[in-house]
Design a protein that fits this description.
About 65% of the residues lie in helices and about 5% in strands. By secondary structure, the protein is mainly α. It has a domain of about 190 residues.
Length: about 290
């Protein structure tokens, strides 16, 4: 039996998102530590080599072990993300409708189908490897053009891997994004299986970490069959449009929110160059 009083979906979504993101963070923490440990082993391998002997093949060989850990980690966080997303979706629908949402094998199968691109993980990881090996090659070529000796070149390579820790940062970003993507797809599968036909794009509106592209998407309505295609480390979520559940106030779209902000806020989100172009009528907000 449904509840007599429908909750406000926007406020409920906000509260649920906090719980959901904390849950994702808890499941990701040990995996992030595992990536960091694997990266430290990789650095130790580089440190064990003579600075004048380091070359691209040495880096590639040492790096490949780290990438194997990344591939295993990416698969694990994707699946954990789906489980968290399914729990989030079930919890959300039960609170909104008052109807018990049951776990069935059919629902699990529908979620597992969203993981079919895991078969492409090796290709994705190889691209990750190619990117950073390309960076190493660029450092070596630039050093040669500047007339640096091998020891100086090796120090530049070590700086790229140790001080900047660029590969580790990219690996963590890659793994986190897969986890979040999986959780969103798990929730969407629950919504679709329970008759939801549309969802509303919900960005973390007002946060200075939210990009302009996501602000523009905020409040737009999409069919339930559409995947929320967010960028890496994206924090947007899909609010299900539940039949007969009315919002207590109008859901303000992102562009409307942006238009009522002061000049400093608008300039911050657009950036100085795009803000000036917008003021001059050269671009629209949704083109920035």
């Amino acid at each position: 039996m449904g509840r007599s009083r429908r909750p406000d979906l926007v406020e409920l979504a906000r509260q649920k998102r906090i719980v959901y993101l904390r849950s994702l963070a808890r499941t990701y923490r040990p995996i992030g530590l595992r990536l960091r440990d694997a990266y430290n082993v990789f650095l130790q391998e580089l440190e064990s080599k003579s600075s004048v002997d380091i070359n691209v093949d040495d880096v590639r060989l040492s790096y490949r072990v780290f990438l194997e850990v990344l591939e295993d980690t990416a698969s694990e966080v994707q699946r954990q993300g789906v489980v968290e997303g399914m729990r989030y979706g079930v919890d959300f629908l039960q609170d909104v409708t008052g109807v018990e949402v049951r776990w069935t094998q059919t629902t699990v199968d529908s979620v597992i189908k969203t993981l079919d691109y895991l078969d492409r993980l090796p290709d994705l990881v190889n691209k990750f490897e190619d990117y950073h090996i390309g960076k190493v090659q660029a450092i070596i070529l630039a050093a040669q053009n500047e007339g640096l000796n091998p020891r100086q070149t090796a120090l530049l390579l070590r700086d790229y891997f140790t001080r900047g820790q660029n590969p580790l940062y990219e690996a963590e970003r890659f793994a986190r994004s897969l986890q979040i993507y999986g959780s969103r797809e798990g929730a969407r599968a629950i919504y679709e299986r329970n008759g939801v036909e549309q969802w509303i794009w919900s960005a973390n509106i007002g946060s200075r970490r939210t990009c302009m592209a996501c602000i523009v998407k905020h409040g737009t309505v999409h069919p339930i069959t559409e995947v929320l295609n967010d960028h890496f480390n994206g924090r947007c979520s899909a609010i299900p449009v539940v039949k007969n559940a009315q919002l207590s106030y109008q859901f303000e779209d992102g562009i409307s929110w942006f238009m009522r902000q002061d000049e400093d806020t608008q300039r911050y989100f657009l950036g100085a160059r795009f803000y000036d172009a917008w003021q001059q009528g050269k671009i629209r907000v949704d083109q920035s």
